[in-house]
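Good morning,

Attaching, inline, the backbone tokens for the sequence recovery test we're adding to the shared suite. The designed sequence is right after.
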């Protein structure tokens, strides 16, 4: 059987069900084509994409500049491994470190790999630079976190669906409540073996939970005070999604490429993925300054595909697109508009309790229990009306369109969303 032999959505779904592991529960939409903010299914129906592959396609589907960079490089040389140098990696590392203003970059492929890399760097730094006794380093994490699904990462998750029957779990983590700087301060004062604090500036999988404006600056300040590495997981929130280059930039008002305003809480370790490639290729990275990154020596960490020429070329073009097309500024302006319009709807209807988010990373909380099917049913109805979104945590629906969306397209989507919600009013 060949791809062209798949003639219907149901046929594609049946093939996945029979031959694929059942580790996802997708919405029943079988996508065949994507361009900009739109995707098309096997039957040719057109949809607005309001998930953006979990913010991987911030630059829009199949951005021609990114596709061209990938195509051009893949015709020259695609993989050398790290046993040899290649002529693209160093250029990319220079470009990205100057773009984000760090000394060094360690290239990986997936977001979870990048988080694992940051954890290893943090621990090694703690033993060799901070002087914590070997094997005793602790890393502070936050309740309801999502950093991936590797064995180490699920060890500090409180999502039982991700954890159950995957033990034994990796030790070395202390969990504290999110958006609670006092709880973090208490742990830092009581434990001298804290190496770092790993945090999502906005918790995406938890339902776009957006902390108080002073929470991230307070975390940064406490980490500085206690000589603890502030590690920001910006895999989903970074690269213009929240209306700033990074979510740790806070509510900045930069008009060009990141002007590093007073609202910026600079991480010691920055973790990137997803939109680093514009969705065209698996690319992730960990950035830090020399004093931290130089603890990693040859043979101590790596990846066959990490830093390959195609990934490097794609990442540079993806970042150029973000800067050239002012996607952070577009996300900031249209995100404000989106929340304003949905709040107008909420004032006079009861199906939605609230809308929250920053930039074009937003969510609505449905007025029903987490165990109900209401959010799922709404997403199925949105699909029928030409918009794709997905529930998270049962009663929350995340809305995250590509950042290339226009105001006219956004208002069309607001109309689809509100008309759909009206059918579910209690």
């Amino acid at each position: 059987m060949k791809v062209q032999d798949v003639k219907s959505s149901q046929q594609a779904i049946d093939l996945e069900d029979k031959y694929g592991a059942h580790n996802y529960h997708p919405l029943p939409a079988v996508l065949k084509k994507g361009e900009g903010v739109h995707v098309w299914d096997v039957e040719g129906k057109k949809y607005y994409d309001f998930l953006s592959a979990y913010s991987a396609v911030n630059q829009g589907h199949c951005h021609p500049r990114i596709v061209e960079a990938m195509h051009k490089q893949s015709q020259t040389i695609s993989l050398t491994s790290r046993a040899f140098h290649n002529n693209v990696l160093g250029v990319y590392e220079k470009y990205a470190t100057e773009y984000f203003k760090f000394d060094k970059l360690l290239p990986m492929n997936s977001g979870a790999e990048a988080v694992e890399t940051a954890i290893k760097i943090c621990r090694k730094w703690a033993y060799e630079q901070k002087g914590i006794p070997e094997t005793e380093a602790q890393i502070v994490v936050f309740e309801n976190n999502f950093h991936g699904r590797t064995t180490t990462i699920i060890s500090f998750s409180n999502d039982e669906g991700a954890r159950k029957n995957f033990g034994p779990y990796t030790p070395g983590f202390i969990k504290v409540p999110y958006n609670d700087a006092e709880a973090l301060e208490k742990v830092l004062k009581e434990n001298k073996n804290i190496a770092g604090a790993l945090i999502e500036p906005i918790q995406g999988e938890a339902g776009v939970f957006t902390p108080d404006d002073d929470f991230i600056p307070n975390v940064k300040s406490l980490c500085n005070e206690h000589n603890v590495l502030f590690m920001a997981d910006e895999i989903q929130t970074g690269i213009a999604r929240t209306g700033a280059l990074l979510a740790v930039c806070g509510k900045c008002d930069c008009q060009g490429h990141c002007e590093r305003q007073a609202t910026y809480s600079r991480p010691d370790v920055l973790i990137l993925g997803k939109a680093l490639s514009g969705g065209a290729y698996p690319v992730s990275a960990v950035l830090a300054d020399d004093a931290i990154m130089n603890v990693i020596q040859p043979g101590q960490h790596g990846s066959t595909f990490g830093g390959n020429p195609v990934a490097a070329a794609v990442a540079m073009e993806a970042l150029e697109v973000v800067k050239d097309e002012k996607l952070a500024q577009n996300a900031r302006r249209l995100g404000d508009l989106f929340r304003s319009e949905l709040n107008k709807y909420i004032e006079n209807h009861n199906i939605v309790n609230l809308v929250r988010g920053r930039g074009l990373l937003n969510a609505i909380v449905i007025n029903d229990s987490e165990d109900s099917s209401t959010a799922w049913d709404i997403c199925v109805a949105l699909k029928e009306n030409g918009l794709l979104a997905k529930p998270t945590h049962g009663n929350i629906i995340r809305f995250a369109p590509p950042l290339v969306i226009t105001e006219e397209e956004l208002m069309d989507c607001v109309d689809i969303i509100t008309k759909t919600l009206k059918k579910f009013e209690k």
